[in-house]
Amino acid sequence: MLRFLLSAGCAALAGTLLIHYLRWSPEKMVAHFFFSDDAFFYSVLARNFHEFGFLTLDGEMSTNGVQPLWMFVQIVLAKLFPNVDGVTLISASSWVCYVALAFAATWFVARGAPYTMCLSALIVAGLTLLNVRFQSFVVNGLETPLTILVVLLTLFMIDRVARNPSKSSPRQLTLAITGLAIFSSLCFFARTDLFWIPLAVGGWLAVARGDLRRKWIPYSIIVLILVLPYLLSNYIGQGSLMPISGRVKLFYLTSFYPDLQSYLHSREWQGLFIAFARFLPLLERLSVFVSLTFAAAALTISQVVVWRDRSEPPIPFSLKILAAAIVGHILFMQFVYRELRPYTAYYFVLEMLWVTMVLAFWAKRTHSSDAQKTLFRSLRKYAGTAIALISVAVAVAHAVRADRRPSSYWVERMNLAGDIRRIVPENERIAAFWPGCFAQFSGRFVTALDGVIGSNDYFQSYVSKNKELDYILERSRPWLAIYLPRSPDLLLGETPPEVDEWADTYITRLWERRHTIEIEILASRLLNREGGGWYLLRLSETHRRDGAP
Question: Which ranges does the record mark as transmembrane (predicted)?
């Protein structure tokens, strides 16, 4: 009963902290920066799917640049509630998933005697579940809360399968393995970079003893049956097994940072370490190097805690499997994917939650120890209580300091969407770099010139050849919505404008065409005295691209 009350209480508090996801209008949510721009891809794609029969942002260009499970959820919700705004559906489903996540995570760690149940719940709730910084990483309109919820359900299934398999009947074990294969596959569908979870589970079954070892083949078959159709549809439709978004980002990244030195001098590799630095207040003012050290130390110490005592396992077996998956995930993201700017901290929410869950089990174990022959062991006994109190203090400190003011960056972005609705004819399509907000609120179909939510054909023919602007000029669609850090005069100078990140290379593209493209400013929403802000431009070619008059 106490376990249920702790879980329900944490879920209720989490829902209360995020109640604005149910009460606020879409416009107010956006103004306060509670949504990532990519979140609007899902609401627009879900709406367009029911109109066109395929995933498309502009009604023409097909795409697969989304996480499939979250996309499926939004498509189903759009079908069930056709008269409800897509942003409202994303808000409500995000809230439901996070509340369920808070319940499941608390239930997972709240084990043992009543006092240690409370210790574990307070540590995980304070450091993560009720930490508004952590919530800002998880709940941003994207797939993250659903992903972590599915991972937790998979952990429950792992522990169920691992618990005395010899005492289960063949039918019970088969059903458990089937459920485990389904949930492991859902982890991949929730975030495709978490393919490490089904691999880690399969590796465990392959080396397990007794009846479990014979189950890795049926497990693998079920996973393949579920995953292969998705991979094949990607390959046939978009020329690659994985979503187009990853290929596009990697192309821009390698083009902008051609060597290791330029990459290391950028912010592209810092997402993991920024994540740990920002959600713990004691680290938020320290350098990225110290954050890196903290993350590495946390992983190392946790591994020692996991493996050193086999007679009395300090944590559930499922966290050991998850540890293997997390190591693979971090290595893959840091050395293969590599597009890890600070905003990508939400990629590593699973790592944050894993560390705090391991810490909660360690704290519970130290309190349960009856060895008090020395002062050190006596103090160690109460380490869990101290950690729990610190965790609560962390949650309270972040809640008090939370900035709930509107973001002028997003307010003006919304205002430009209104300008587009007013200026651009209803039957016209516009183009934009990073177009989610405009696609949602402008009332016009929007082509994503960056290609992240585009097609393989567009990537091969335009993005990979640095010809993104040619796409709209060839189709006589002159409307372009963009952000400029300074006045548009920076596009006309003889020296190239300074661009700090690959995501801003569209500024260079415009500057390179300054002699062949005429730019007319139709609307502007300024953010600084230098003329930086959101612009609606109309482009026209001054002469043919081959140089003829």
Answer: 89-110, 146-162, 174-196, 216-236, 286-307, 319-337, 343-362, 382-400
